[in-house]
Amino acid sequence: MQTSYAPGRVELLGNHTDYNEGVVLSAAIDRGVTLSGERTGSSRVTLCSTTLESTFEASTASLAPNKEHEWANYLLGVLDVFQKAGLPVGGFSAEIKSDLPLGAGLSSSAALEVSTAMLLQKLFGLSLDRLTIAKLCRRAENEFVGVNCGLLDQVSSAFGKAGHAIFLDCRNETVETTPFPDGVELLITQCGVPHRLSGGEYNERRLQCFDAAARLGAKALRDVTSAQLEAAKAMLPTLSYKRAAHVVGENERVLQGIEFLRNGNVRAFGALMFASHESSRHNFENSTPELDALVEIARDLPGVLGSRLTGGGFGGATVTLLERDKAHAVAETLVAKYREQTGHVAHAHLCEIADGAH
Ligand code: GLA
After folding, report:
1. Domain ranges of the chain
2. Residue 41 forms beta bridges with which residues?
3. What is 116-183 written as a DSSP string?
4. What is the number of the ligand 1 atom nearest to the C-alpha of 149?
5. How open is the CA angle 99-269-303, to the nearest 5 degrees?
6. Atom 2 of ligand 1 has which residue's CA nearest to it?
7. Does the pTM exceed 0.70?
8. Is 91's C-beta closer than 6 angstroms to any atom of ligand 1?
9. What angle do CA 31, 33, 38 make, to 5 degrees?
10. Which range (19-28, 100-109, 268-277, 324-333) has the least confidence?
11. Is the beta carbon of 311 within 6 A of some atom in ligand 1?
């Protein structure tokens, strides 16, 4: 029996920049997906989710996405792309345990994919580097699961480093880590209303971004500066302008943000997080009233430096940067006030920045 583990991630800045060939800052968190399994010695694949109390069987010879057991598609998808890449894999069994909430915007899907890849590596004696693993897992999500995500989630899960933020350049496919400043913590707050990226909004936003880049005569929104965008504003449909403004602004905020992290300027970093959320709300329209409420309540609490939605949006969670000594008080008050205002029960989790998959 072998085991593998891959964590979820929190996106710190750089919302919807990854598939626009941009830059993003993230971190792996102290929650994730553990798999234990072994080779079946045949073409049989036997999967079991303890969290969902569900099992599923398949054959390596006929892998296809399954509608009733969507959770299984993440594992089957990774097996499928490994096979298509000509890697010597075969049937296996796997039991999934996870302490990562599903649909919370913390990339439970990428954690499951990366954990599957790590398990396959062990079971079949492969030695792929982390970037190759992340890219194969993204391919599984794009081609098998059907979500056209970028590289952010899989890279964060594969490259996480305790106490460090991850800086990913999606065009150059380079990954750097930088120490996260002392004296601050990250609070992840699930809004209590799950999100579903397969819902279509994500792929729709992606196409709107590609369309905006084409109208601007750019290969990708990565190539557009805010000055260029402002100069072209009059000739762009409002929707294209707003989508582009979000991505262009986020890329710029990531580049400023990494400098602020390096200098330990947590206040300035927090201000960028608030600006990022405002841009999500107004320009990208991937926030929800619940996420807005969490950010607005957090803004007024002593010790809070910044707050924004994290991940795809349309539900999920916010990430709040706050002073360590006020962290517990903020978490309690945020949940209480949010319940008063919206009637929803939020889950707040003070998270450690953790190591990536192993
Ligand atoms: C989801 C996707 C990522 C990224 C974020 C938004 O998490 O899976 O690839 O696009 O949304 O930044």
Report:
1. 2-173
2. none
3. HHHHHHHHHT----HHHHHHHHHHIIIIII-----SHHHHHHHH--TTEEEEEETTTTEEEEEEPPTT
4. 9
5. 70
6. 149
7. yes
8. no
9. 150
10. 100-109
11. yes
Determine if ligand 1 sits within 6 Å of the CB of residue 319. Answer: no
3-state SS, residue 195: coil
Q: Which atom of ligand 1 is nearest to the CA of 18?
A: 10
**Which of 18, 80, 153, 292 is flagged as catalytic?**
153
Evaluate: CB of 150 within 6 angstroms of ligand 1: yes
- The CATH number of 2-173 is 3.30.230.10
pLDDT in tens, 12-68: 999 999 999 999 999 999 999 999 999 999 999 999 998 889 999 999 999 999 999
- Tens-digit pLDDT profile for residues 290-313: 999 999 999 999 999 999 999 999
160, two tokens: 């996480």
Note if 18 is an active site residue: no
Instruction: Provide mean pLDDT across the span 142-155.
Output: 94
The answer to whether residues 20 and 173 touch, using CB atoms and an 8 Å cutoff, is no
- Ligand 1 binding pocket includes 154 (Cβ within 6 Å): no
User: For residue 246, what are its two tokens?
Assistant: 């979000």
